[in-house]
Amino acid sequence: MSTAPQIDAPPGDTTTTAPPLGLFGTGTVPAAADLPVEIPVDLTGMDDDDRARTKVITSAIRQRSQELRRDHPVLRHQDALGLAAFSVALLGFVGSGALYLTGVLPWYVTVLVSAAFAAIGHEVEHDLIHALYFRRRKAVRYALLYAVWAFRPYTINPVYRIRLHLRHHAYSGLPDDIEEVSITNGKPWGLVRLYSLLDPYVPAMTRILFTKPVDAEDALWRRTILKASIGLTPVAITIWYGFLLLHLASWLGAAVPAGLLHALTVLTVVWVGPNVWRGFCLHFISSNMHYQGDVEQGNVLQQTQVFNKWYLAPFQVFCANFGSTHPIHHFYVADPFYVRQLMERDIHPVLAANGVRFNDMGTFARANRYAKD
Ligand SMILES: [Zn+2]
Ligand SMILES: [Zn+2]
Prior knowledge:
The chain is 59% helix and 0% strand.
């Protein structure tokens, strides 16, 4: 493997020394005068062998993608399928909540069933971020993005997530991969990491509000993340912590208004709670199947592992099999989540034969570093 690549400095950037570490913008990539959506991926550091392996994998995925569309023509109706997936997620989420409100389902069944349907909503959001549905109809795409946020409120504004997520692909595994770093990837294990898997937002907000930015880029990303959190995120946080605190107070014997406690309980069971659990499962799988800290820029072989051991199934159910299918996405972003699912069995052997790791549980001890020594 070659050493970490250098990327050309943009015009006007005269920075020659590494800036001090901030929360964001750690100096491994050029300072951003603005926040571009399209980030060129610099591959100059990859050696020929890795390039060849990457090409084999990408070609295999593309070929399987074409075969699936040829054998199942329904897959060509991608916009309709995206809308169908969105409808299934929404109806499943709302239906499960309705069955709780009418006394058919106990709270814990509703939380789990709704979380599984919300996970489909997350995949739809991710596909919309890559413009895989309604590519030429931005208004429809954005309307759907806000609609999937409505039943997944414990997350940031998905329109702001577009920049963060495309940055994830461009700088995957580098400290500048803000999306993954924000969900604990690369941090040593401990109570803070464990808690941040359940709720990455309050710890992130605390750090943003109570520490000072070290440079303009750090400040810019802080502002962006704060803006991305306006809307449903604080509403969901208020409901979740209100629910926990009032139940604790009531248990300790304090006089808590029964109506308020009931309202927070209902909102937690049918809206926020499923997303807290879904988020935990997704963050746990994602932050351990991506490598972090010593990945060569643009080297997709090092960015992820296939993370699908049988005992991870209880988490995979609530993140739409993310650990098993997301590595395919890093090599080829043009397929929606259900196509990745359909090709998983055929592509995994290709990934394995070309050096992508499978179930590397040592990642827990290495704080997600790729290097094993
Ligand atoms: Zn993506
Ligand atoms: Zn990823």
